[in-house]
Amino acid sequence: LPLPQVLPAMEAIARPLLQRLQAALEGGGGPGEVSVLLEQLCALLGKVSPGERPTADEVARVPALQDALHPSVHLLQQLWGVLEAIFERHGGDSRVMEKLCRCYKHTSRNTAQGPFRGDFRSLVPRLLPQVTGWFERQPHSCFLYVANVCLRGYHDAPELLPTFRETFARMSAVVFRLLSAAPTAIPDNPDVVDDFFELCSTVLRLHPALLAESELLLSSFQCGCAALRIQHREANRAVVGFFEMLLVLRQAGARGNLSPAAFNGITTLLVANGAQLAQELLLAIAGLVPPARVRFLSPVLKGLVLVDYAASRSWLEAAVQALPPGGHMDGATLLQAIYSAEALARDDRGAGDRVFGQAAEAFSNACRRRRLL
Question: Does residue 73 contact residue 46 with C-beta atoms inside 8 Å?
Answer without folding.
Answer: no
